[in-house]
Amino acid sequence: MKFPGSVLVSLVLFMSETVAALCLSAGYHDTGNRMWQTLTLLFALVPCALVQLSLVFIHRDVSRDRPLVLLLHLLQLGPLVRCVEALYIYFHAGRVEDPYVSITKKRQLPKDGHSEEVEKEVGQTEGKLHTHRSAFSRVSVIQAFLGSAPQLTLQLYISVLQQEVTVARSVFMVLSLLSIVYGALRCNILAIKIKYDDYNVRVKPAAYLCIFMWRSFEIATRVTVLVLFGSVLKIWVFVVVLLNFLGFFLYPWILFWLSKSPFPENIEKELSRLGTTIVLCLLTFLYAGINMFCWSAAQVELSDPDLISKSQNWYRMTVYYIVRLMENAFLLLMWYIYRTDFYLYVCAPMLFLQLLIGYCMGVFFMLVFYQFCHPCKKLFSSSVTEALLSCFKILYLICQHQKSSLLTGKVVIKSPENTDEARGSSKTIDSQNRNQSVSSNA
After folding, report:
1. Is the dihedral of CA 172, 177, 180, 185 positive or negative?
2. Phi/psi at 266 (nearest 5 deg)?
3. 300: exposed, middle or buried (C-beta count within 10 Å: 0-12, 13-18, 19+)?
4. Residue 196: what pLDDT?
5. Measured in Å, how far apart are the chain's first and last C-alpha atoms?
6. SS3 of residue 159 by DSSP
7. Sign (positive or negative) of CA dihedral 350, 353, 356, 361
8. What's the CA gap between 23 and 168, in Å, rounded?
9. Cβ atoms of residues 101 and 29 within 8 Å
10. Is 294 within 8 Å of 219 (Cβ atoms)?
11. 3-state SS class at 113
12. Which of 381, 7, 382, 375 is nearest to 200 (CA)?
């Protein structure tokens, strides 16, 4: 039985970030920055409440009649209680034999074209630990992209405006960045477990390292680009954020409407249709929050019973990264054009280049992960590099088609002029010939 290390890491990040947010908001209160204090508390307490609700929903505590646990969740101590419970289950496992054992069948990853099916006995203790791990994985994603990501953007923006990075704020930003990267990492692992649920998947340390580097470069550069753009064009940054958020929020609903699938009713038996709609809206809200800062490895598909797409859509990922790179470059260009004397002592071209290279480094580690370190790469029907090459071929064909259409347009435009010139030249030649004939006759 594996030690619940992911549960412990999630709890440490959650508690340390919450304590750091409270201390930093107290510092803003002492210096009279009420607006920064309010926003810091808002980005700390709202995701904290969502985390408590998620844990109660996943563990079904309302239907199990556990008033003490619900009270602790109201006191914002739910993750601490869950972690203690998981550790208690782990250290007391094996002392008493489980009366009920379920048998699960998992297929091994194919070797030499053959895949064997292996049966495994899972007791109640291991099942409870699995539930805790799954719950904390989802909680880490919620905390990362609905709390830590806005918090990191806010604190970096404050540092840019004040031209000062205090020790408390720098520690808080590092914790927020670690929380976001860890949440993105858990999202990747969760997507792999859902997509390949029939297989016995083991993620190697090299894969964790590639995901960590990929997400670190991608998220850090994205947050920096938004902060730089917002520091010179304060109103337009809200337009950019709103368009991104609404686009990714409505995208799963548009696909669901186009598929003409029935409304999903199997999320929770006790939920009404309105409750199911609220849960789906919260899920797409989280999906939009993830895609605001990085690519969501778990693609929401409302027509699927598990609400997660199990197909590996390379083209969608490729289009996302191409469009996101173009958007980042455009936002940096707008910052470079409209930058003020505030950035007089900053080498703007070098910063522009470093951020674009940093984002490309994130894409590089992503390609390395999917090409060499993905635990289920043997099951891919095609590789991500093939999808990239095909997308580049499509872009090349589109560019060639536009060039050919432009050339044909120019030929059509020039052809009447050429005919008129030809007619004029023919007329002058005829007149010259007539003059020569008249002079010869004379």
Report:
1. negative
2. -100, 20
3. buried
4. 82
5. 120
6. helix
7. negative
8. 8
9. no
10. yes
11. coil
12. 375
Instruction: For 179, list phi and psi in degrees, rounded to 5.
Output: -65, -40
User: Where would I find the H helices in 196-272?
Assistant: 205-232, 234-259
| Tokens representing residue 215 in the block | 């997400």
Cα separation, 79 vs 62, in Å, equals: 16
Both tokens of 5, joined, read 């290390």
Structure tokens, 99: 């009366």
Q: What DSSP state is assigned to residue 374?
A: -
Average pLDDT for runs of 10 along the chain of length 442: 85 92 91 90 90 79 71 80 86 68 69 67 75 87 92 93 88 94 92 82 90 95 94 90 94 90 73 81 92 90 82 83 94 90 82 93 92 82 68 73 69 52 49 47 38
Q: Name the packing angle between helices 124-143 and 273-293 (round to 10°).
A: 60
Whether residue 195 contacts residue 308, with contact meaning beta carbons closer than 8 Å, is answered with: yes
Residue type, 390: S
Q: Report the pLDDT value the prediction gives residue 115, as an integer from 0 to 100.
A: 66
CA distance 391 to 318: 8
Closest to 94 (Cα-Cα) out of 130, 128, 125, 127: 125
Provide the β-strand partners of residue 119: 105
